[in-house]
Amino acid sequence: MTPISVPPQHVTYTVKQSGWISPSQWHSFTLVVTEAFWLLPVHLRPCSPTDGTRLERASMMFTHPGAFEFGGKDEGNYISKSVMFTLDMSPDLRIETEGQPIDFFTRIALLMLYHHCSGCFEITSSAGGVSWALPVRWAIRHQLIADSNAPQPFSTHGFITGAADELLIRSVSGAERPFTTADWGLVSELEFALEELKTDKR
Question: I need a surface site. Which of 67, 117, 151, 182 has the fewest CB within 10 A?
Answer without folding.
Answer: 182
